Each structure stands twice: as structure tokens, then as C-alpha cells.
Amino acid sequence: MNARPVAGVPILRLGNVLVTGLLDELDDKAALAFTDELTQRITAEDASGVLIDISRLEIIDSFVARTLMELTTMARLLGARVIVAGMLPPVAITLVELGLRLDGVETALNAERGMALLGWQQNRQLPEGAPSAALH
Fold it and tell me: How many CB atoms lie within 10 A of CB 36?
């Protein structure tokens, strides 16, 4: 697993998937740096998928929505599928009320479902000596 924060946004690699999250709204400079770094990492690490967790964003504006759409388009052109995960209900409501559409952006309820859409499966292996009932 590899993490390097860019513009205050860490990008982790899990297998062939890059995982990142937006904790706060990005300003123009930070958004450009984040987009550049993420697209560079997609090609450098031959990533087939990107998960962007936005579950910590309580508000979203047209700039962030446009950044997510552009980033998704760029990643797709580079051969990676992007899933935006964890959108809170108030964020979804705001997008609809403002008439903002995330055209081409795939979403998932949470990061775990987003990773599943990207083909990532959680191994439920038990440590040696652990009782098998722990899975139930």
C-alpha cells in the first residue's frame, strides 16, 4: 500500500485500484494539483480503477461537481473506471436543487460497495487459531 498526500489529499494504492477521498472542498489550485497527481498515478501505476470517497463532504458546489466530472472523464480516457462513494443525502439534495448533474460519474453508497464495483473483494480469512464462529 502506497500513500502520498497531494494538495492535502492522500492517494492509496490497493492492488490495481487507487483510493482517495475529499475531506474538504478543494480550491482551484488544490483541485488542479489533485487532478494532475491522480491522472499521473493512474498511468504510472497502471491503475484500472479509482475510488473517490466523498463521505466527509457535507456540502458540494458546482466547482467540486465539475472537478469530479472532469476527473472521471480523464481517468476513463486513461483506461480507469472511477467510482465516487459515500455521498451524503444533503449533498445529493443540494446537487438536485442546484440542477447540477454528475454526468458520467458512477456512484456507490459507501466505499465498500464502490470497491466491490471495481472488482475488489474483501478476504474474510481468520487468523490462525481464531474460532470459525467469528464469521457469523
Answer: 13
Query: pLDDT by residue (tens digit) across 43-78?
Result: 999 999 999 999 998 888 888 888 888 999 999 999
pTM: 0.81
Crossing angle of helices 62-77 and 28-44, rounded to 10°: 20
DSSP sequence for 17-85 = EEEEE--SPPPHHHHHHHHHHHHHHHHHTT-SEEEEE-TT-S---HHHHHHHHHHHHHHHHTT-EEEEE
Cell of 128: 490462525
Domain annotation for the chain: domains and CATH numbers: 3-121 (3.30.750.24)
Q: Pick from 35, 26, 34: which is nearest to 59 by CA?
A: 26
Which tens digit of pLDDT belongs to each residue from 1-53? 545 555 567 899 999 999 999 877 778 888 888 899 999 999 999 999 999 99
Among 89, 12, 8, smallest CA distance to 51 is for 12
Cα Rg of the chain (Å, integer): 16
